Amino acid sequence: MPVEDVLEFFKKARDDPATLARYNHRNLSELLFHAKNEGFDFTAANLADVAGRLEANVILQKDHDPFDETSRLWREMWGSVHLEYLVDHVVRRHSDEELKSLVEEIGAAGQ
To answer: Alpha-carbon distance 86 to 109, whole Å?
Structure first.
């Protein structure tokens, strides 16, 4: 399932600094192309869906902030490369079990 591949890609970038460094400054088209060559099969829409849900979970469930520009997470993205921001400020805030659960919810909603 593509959303599971997004999760595995994020976890690899989280756990392997070389992977994060290799992808960090690539644009979206380059990221998708090279990720596919490494066995990850997801689209830009899959990536956006998973990232958005993870961000929403951090804002609403972990930080208990409003889902707007006043959230603490919103300020974390300023000045950051997007992938680095996602890995360091969003993915790392979730346990592997939380990541799996959120991705399962996305998969169930898409069926």
So the answer is: 22
